[in-house]
Design a protein that fits this description.
heterodimer, A: 395 residues, mainly alpha, 0% strand, B: 212 residues, alpha+beta, 3-stranded antiparallel beta sheet, two-stranded antiparallel sheet
Chain lengths: 395, 212
């Protein structure tokens, strides 16, 4: 037995455990997040939410899962079968793959048992680039699914989704470039460690508040979450790209979307809010027994709060119109993220105090606000009246 | 809108306040149906019943008024001569079939019935496994009566022991028209089969020339 164990590299075992833990936990957590979202939606709308399966409906995920498995799996007659079947898989695979480089617990901290490593692929030097590259591939699942369904609503949904994801990819990437410059690394673990060793005031939120806002907004758009879920807008497109999908294939799309939300929340916390670091409770100096468990809990609590915020926003902000969506990305977020990056570059080049970046970010936000308000006012002032318009139409 | 409102952030914060307030101050309005039954208004129109008179006989006199009034054409009645020991009526329904699936629950049969024999009850959860099962015949409709007659929500809307308004047609006071009719009105000059006598329009047809 020992002989055999000798030939198995320790790394392999650790990685397998990490993968099983991550994927298993992810699937379990997603099913309960769906329940939480349904409950939260119900509470916000003075309803009760699912409450029939088990006390308070806590076994609802099992009922959902059974229903997904047992429902008839319809493939439309004129659909492109190969792509139709491949699309949900691609959608889930790419979002799952992105999670490989996200540390979901304290990494490189004393006291963690040797077989536990809270990241599937440690020390990927281009972690951020990898995540953006892989998550933007998830739009393939949407496009292929929408196109292969041979349904006009699916195709329209897929078109919208592709336009949206491509537009929001740019501010998403550029908002993180500021952090990459400040930390002079693209390694997510490295960025986390910098914030943890630097303490509370070194969380990148304090130097990059604008980037945080842009990142969060674009990430919601990337994940097709509600204020930006034009690709599946029920009122216009039936179900969007997944109109023709049923049973488990639909569930895979759904899982992909939720995985995206979770990855996004992890990234927001790790990049801007210090990951597992919290003053006094979980710092690199805390050496008490079981510190790593506290760190893990701190990280998961932060992620949970971000996820709840996303769910709250879902019923708070009405859905954007498509031109508003494009305007927000191209006229507001991309220039702002560019300006933010320029500010970071300037500060670094001239060796100024990096605390200046906080006020600079707020200043940029105010300037952008003033400009857009000025444009809007000018447009309102010069907007032709209804009388003029009707005259114009008659002649 | 000022600058601050136009930045869109205060609107989001306000909205979040509203949604969070609903979560923290949670007051559901949902009725838990199978456990909590709804309180229906008294005029709710549900499944029909055929009333019985004081001797337990079917009250219906097979006059076909309900079947005629029915806009959905869901009532079919076969009349037969009443048994000789039923001296108060000429006919009774040999069959009375009401298609509950076809019915639109408008209540016009109830209004048309001269003897208040058909009434709509509060039963709203009508289910069945076949269409045939929901063709309610006379016995089923009488069974609905037996089931609902003591229910406070379905009081007998007729005076017990009498056939109904039409049974005492002769003794009923004549009704005044809803709107006052003057001798000049065309309706007052029409040669109608029945003459309307009211206190302010005593004999409209006595002197046509004067009316004109």
């Amino acid at each position: 037995m020992d002989k055999i164990l000798e030939y198995i590299p320790e790394d392999l075992v650790v990685t397998l455990i990490a993968i099983v833990a991550a994927v298993g936990a992810m699937l379990g957590v997603i099913s309960y997040l769906i329940l939480l979202e349904r409950k939260l939606s119900a509470w916000m709308q003075d309803r009760r939410g699912p409450n029939r399966v088990g006390p308070m409906g806590i076994f609802q995920p099992f009922a959902d899962g059974a229903k997904f498995l047992l429902k008839e799996d319809v493939i439309p007659a004129n659909a492109d079968k190969v792509l139709f079947l491949a699309a949900p898989g691609i959608g889930l695979l790419t979002t799952m793959l992105a999670f490989a480089v996200v540390p979901y617990g304290p990494v490189g901290v004393e006291g963690v048992p040797w077989f536990l490593r809270f990241i599937i692929a440690p020390n990927v030097d281009i972690g951020i680039v990898f995540i953006f590259a892989v998550t933007s591939l998830s739009v393939y699942g949407v496009i292929l699914g929408g196109w292969a369904s041979n349904n006009k609503y699916s195709a329209l949904g897929a078109l919208r989704a592709s336009a949206q994801v491509i537009s929001y990819e740019i501010p998403l990437g550029m908002s993180v470039l500021g952090i990459a410059l400040l930390g002079s690394t693209l390694n997510i673990q490295e960025i986390l460690t910098q914030q943890a060793t630097g303490g509370f005031w070194n969380w990148y939120f304090w130097t990059q508040p604008l980037a945080c806002l842009i990142f969060f907004t674009s990430a919601m758009a990337e994940a097709n979450r509600l204020p930006f879920d034009l690709s599946e807008c029920e009122q216009e497109l039936v179900g969007g790209f997944h109109t023709e999908y049923s049973s488990m294939k639909f569930a895979l799309f759904f899982l992909g979307e939720y995985t995206h939300v979770i990855t996004t929340s992890f990234l927001t916390v790790i990049l801007f809010f210090g990951g597992w670091h919290f003053p006094w409770i979980a710092t690199p100096e805390s050496t008490y027994v079981g510190a790593w468990i506290v760190m893990l809990l701190v990280l998961l609590t932060k992620v949970f709060m971000v996820i709840v915020l996303i769910m709250l926003l879902r019923w708070t902000i009405p859905r954007f119109r498509f031109d508003q969506l494009m305007n927000l990305s191209w006229k507001a977020l991309i220039p702002l993220s560019l300006a933010n990056m320029l500010a970071v570059m300037t500060v670094l080049q001239f060796g100024w105090d990096r605390w200046l970046l906080g006020p600079i970010s707020i200043g940029l936000f105010v300037i952008a606000g003033v400009i857009s308000v000025g444009f809007k006012r000018a447009e309102i002032r010069h907007r032709p009246s209804a009388v003029e318009l009707s005259h114009h139409l008659v002649t | 809108m000022g600058f601050w409102e136009m930045t869109f952030l205060p609107a989001i914060v306000d909205g979040l306040k509203t949604t969070i307030k609903h979560v923290t101050n949670y007051q559901p309005v949902t009725q838990q149906y199978p456990e909590e039954k709804p309180v229906l208004p008294l005029h709710y129109r549900g499944v029909h019943r055929l009333n019985r008179d004081e001797k337990g006989r079917v009250k219906c006199v097979a006059c076909m008024l309900c079947a005629t009034a029915c806009p959905a054409d869901c009532i079919s009645i076969e009349a037969a001569a009443a048994p000789p020991d039923w001296p108060d009526r000429d006919k009774f329904p040999a069959t009375f079939v009401l298609d509950e699936l076809r019915c639109i629950y408008c209540g016009m049969c109830e209004e048309a019935c001269p003897v208040d024999a058909i009434e709509l009850t509060h039963i709203y959860d009508l289910t069945g496994e076949s269409r045939a099962e929901l063709m309610y015949d006379r016995e089923k409709l009488l069974a609905v009566y037996d089931e609902t007659k003591d229910d406070p929500r379905d009081p007998l809307r007729t005076r017990r022991g009498k056939l109904g308004p039409a049974a005492d047609f002769g003794t009923l006071p004549t009704l005044a028209p809803a709107t006052q009719v003057t001798p000049g009105d065309r309706s007052a000059q029409a040669t109608a089969p029945g003459t309307i006598h009211t206190y302010n329009n005593p004999r409209p047809f006595d002197d046509p020339g004067a009316a004109r």
